[in-house]
Design a protein that fits this description.
The complex is a heterotrimer, with one copy of chain A and two copies of chain B. Chain A is 55% helix and 5% strand. Chain A has helices spanning 12-22, 32-48, 55-72, 88-114, 143-168, 172-185, 191-194, 201-216, and strands at 188-190, 220-224, 231-235. The termini of chain A are far apart. Chain B folds into three domains: 4-76, Winged helix-like DNA-binding domain superfamily/Winged helix DNA-binding domain (Arc Repressor Mutant, subunit A); 97-163, Arc Repressor Mutant, subunit A (Orthogonal Bundle), CATH 1.10.10; 172-215. Classes of the chains: A mainly alpha, B mainly alpha. The interface between A and B is large, with 70 and 71 residues.
Chain lengths: 241, 216, 216
């Protein structure tokens, strides 16, 4: 009976504005029962078509029913002694939303105008005295970039590790044995020596984790090596058991 | 301002891949040629007009535009067909209605929190905020002092560039609620509907479940 | 060649992201305006000369240059001093992706040691740490109690200023961003349950007084 275009509404307020316009309703005097019925019909239609109904629409359905009920009850009185229209909040919300919906049309127009303009595209041939700075190739950054960078750094590592451990068949236990075996013949060894024949980055990382594990188990100790950025691994004498 | 700086200003704008503010042009010239050089942002502004007149005189396809509090060279709209055909920009999709709506709210109410945006739109706006953040049209501006200290959002320079605005104040103003009240759409209807009609309907409607059938 | 294409050619070179070959200009125009348009690569070549004469006539700071694979705009060498200064000025305000990543790790995990940073990033970070220290975005906060007593790094006041934060605790939590990308399945499930409840409510709505209580 009603031709309602699906999925063209940005939200429940948008849908209500559609009903108001289509049925030439007075926004300041919304027939709540009628509009609730229309609203529910729309939701049922979505259900029939097996479309997901967003929570915001459901919330609005509840709100509409609440208003409907209040309309039939004695009116509440505000501090000035005036009757409170149960629809007032909804009307305000609709008007506020309408303002920005109109604005979005203007933005849309500005967008289409702006798309016709192209800024200068190629700067490679500009004569520059200063050497080109690699850093200037990158954009200005915001807090958002910072969070994204952090998430990326934190999330990529474990994923890679799980995947590659399987692939290379390296486990922390194996590497613990490997380290202990290496230390059987030598009192100490540095990390570079330990990782000497390791080609995959993951094997080195797993070995490093194994190393930390051994430190925690108090089986080995670490100390600074004379070389820059280097450390030595040495056996700890078993103190208990 | 010495006339010799006309071309220097032109070169600086021409070689900048982002809108360059008048203050940065002034600073660059003073840093290089001395603090005593007489040049002000309003000199720059006048120079832009002069330069654009020159481009007009040779019927050039580009102009200096005032965007995002700065100056940038851009093609004239009438060449959109050719330029768009070449560039990868053409494949870029336009913003959705939801994105535009949310941007309008943020642009006018910034800094604004997510709950405030959702109050106005009446819908959950997580996804759309993420999209706008990804597109660098909005950014996080800090935290609100209200309960829960939610994040505050605001528009970026990229937003100004995207919509061709020089300044956020160049945005068309949203209509006041009073104006919307005077809107023809609503005025025309206002008198048509009688008060008791509402109550009548409310009385007639006993089972909402029935409305289901009306759709079919 | 029709004179009208002079400005089209100019616009195409101006807007191109890469040096544009004469053949591509010809192809673009023919694709858009028809195969029968009379235009050849040698027309383009002559057009470039004509355009450059125009820029000379208005004493412009730029020219169209011929490079191996096409045409490209460039500022003249006499402005190199200014143009070069501009780009280095800009670089001061920017951070590389690697620096950003490191900075983010330090900001969220501070105080943190170099080995810990390198474990997360998977690469040596000496150079980056030095850069960040130089830019005064991070500082040394002391030494860790762990083996080797490595230095601990943390962010500075300058860092807070750079991002417009009052306090390091104002930094958005990664959780807050994840929230923007909520699990859709979960939301859909929740909505279905809510919808059923509302419908039940609507069907039972025979006594209005009662339903009022149910809603609240």
């Amino acid at each position: 009976m009603y031709k309602v275009k699906l999925n063209t509404f940005e939200g429940p307020l948008d849908l209500l504005l559609f009903f108001i316009k289509r049925d030439e309703l007075d926004i300041y005097d919304i027939p709540i029962a009628y509009i609730t019925k229309e609203f529910m019909s729309y939701l049922h239609l979505l259900e029939k078509l097996d479309l997901e109904i967003a929570g915001d629409f459901i919330l609005m359905a509840a709100t509409l029913m609440q208003i409907k009920v209040k309309m039939l009850l004695p009116k509440e009185i505000d501090e000035k002694g005036e009757e409170i229209d149960p629809r007032q909040d909804l009307v305000n919300a609709l008007l506020e939303y309408k303002r920005y919906k109109e604005m979005s049309d203007e933005l849309s127009f500005m967008e289409s105008t702006q798309r016709k303009i192209t800024y200068r595209g190629n700067f490679a041939a500009d004569e520059k005295e200063a050497p080109h700075d690699m850093e200037s190739l990158l954009k200005n950054i915001s807090i958002y970039d910072l969070i994204k960078a952090f998430q990326k750094a934190m999330m990529e590592k474990p994923k890679e590790a799980v995947h590659q451990i399987k692939k290379f068949n390296v486990t922390i236990d194996e590497q613990i044995e490997y380290i202990l075996a290496k230390l059987e013949h030598k009192a100490s060894i540095n990390f570079i020596e330990l990782a000497e024949f390791m080609t995959e980055k993951l094997r080195i990382i797993v070995t490093f984790i194994a190393l930390l594990e051994l430190v925690k188990m108090e089986k080995i100790g670490l100390r600074e090596a004379p070389e820059f950025n280097q450390f030595e691994i040495y056996r700890l004498e078993e103190t208990n058991g | 301002m010495d006339k010799i700086y006309l071309t220097v200003i032109e070169a600086l704008i021409f070689a900048s891949d982002e809108p360059i503010p008048a203050s940065e042009i002034v600073k660059t010239i003073k840093d290089l040629d001395g603090e005593d050089i007489k040049i002000t942002p309003s000199d720059i502004e006048a120079t832009i007009d002069e330069l654009n007149k020159k481009y007009e005189s040779i019927e050039s396809s580009f102009r200096i535009l005032r965007i995002a509090n700065g100056y940038i060279f851009g093609t004239k709209q009438e060449f959109a067909k050719y330029v768009g055909y070449l560039s990868t920009e053409k494949s870029k999709r336009r913003l959705s209605q939801a994105a535009l709506e949310t941007l309008a709210i943020i642009a006018y109410k910034q800094p604004i929190t997510k709950p405030e945006i959702e109050m106005i739109r009446g819908v959950n706006s997580d996804y759309i905020l993420n999209t706008l953040l990804e597109k660098n049209l909005i950014t996080i501006k800090g935290r609100s002092e209200t309960i829960g200290r939610p994040l505050l959002y605001g528009t970026t320079e990229e937003f100004l560039k995207y919509f061709g605005l020089n300044n956020i104040t160049d945005l068309p103003k949203p209509r006041e609620i009073e104006e919307i009240m005077k809107d023809q759409d609503f005025i025309d209807q206002k008198n048509k509907i009688m008060m008791n009609q509402i109550e009548e309907m409310a009385e007639n409607e006993t089972d909402i479940g029935d409305s289901d059938n009306e759709i079919e």
